[in-house]
């Protein structure tokens, strides 16, 4: 079992997450209209999954804003933030924060958390991580942040994305 630090304590993930080279497992999430979004609907071009425990906390908010700002520069990629906040909480947060360049999807039912083993059962939240796949859904980059209190390595993630798609500057 993989472990991460949460508030200074070691906690176990649900299981072992998929690795680079693996196919992204099937899951379903919900958009802000309450519509089901399946894994198959997200692939077709490079995909950046930014996974956060709770959008309404400072580090998760920062992480989502950073990827939201970058999404503009990679028109050939899909950027998604996933948390297990409720659809309503996500809707309110996006409205208040002006996040429009990426999709914020709810894993309220934990379909994604269990499919990827990125769920922290003792904490009731997803662990902070970044997964990048190619257009077929094959994982080409993954960072499971060792301490949930820390931000992911944005530069390394975006460099991995640039191997799959080109950056466009304004």
From TrEMBL:
Q: What keywords sit in the KW lines?
A: Antioxidant, Disulfide bond, Oxidoreductase, Peroxidase, Redox-active center
- The residues covered by the Thioredoxin domain are 18-166
Name the InterPro entries on file. Answer: Redoxin, Thioredoxin-like_sf, Thioredoxin_domain, TPX, Tpx_Peroxidase_subfamily
Matching Pfam families? Redoxin
Q: Name one GO molecular function term.
A: thioredoxin peroxidase activity
Q: Which NCBIfam families match?
A: PRK00522.1
Know the name of this protein? Thiol peroxidase
List the top taxonomic levels of the source.
Answer: Bacteria, Bacillati, Bacillota, Bacilli, Lactobacillales
């Amino acid at each position: 079992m993989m472990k991460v630090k949460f508030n200074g304590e070691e906690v176990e993930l649900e299981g072992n997450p998929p690795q680079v080279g693996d196919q992204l497992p099937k899951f379903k999430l919900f958009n802000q209209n309450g519509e089901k979004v399946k894994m198959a609907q997200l692939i077709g071009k490079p995909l950046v999954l930014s996974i956060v425990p709770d959008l309404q906390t400072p580090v998760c908010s920062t992480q989502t804003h950073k990827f939201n700002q970058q999404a503009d520069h990679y028109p050939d990629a899909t950027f998604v933030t996933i948390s297990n906040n409720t659809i309503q909480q996500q809707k309110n947060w996006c409205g208040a924060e002006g996040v429009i360049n990426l999709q914020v999807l709810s894993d309220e039912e934990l379909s994604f958390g269990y499919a990827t083993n990125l769920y922290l059962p003792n904490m009731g939240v997803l662990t902070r991580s970044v997964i990048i796949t190619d257009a077929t859904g094959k994982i080409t980059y993954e960072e499971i942040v060792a301490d949930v209190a820390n931000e992911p390595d944005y530069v390394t993630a975006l460099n991995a994305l640039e191997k799959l798609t080109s950056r466009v500057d304004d």
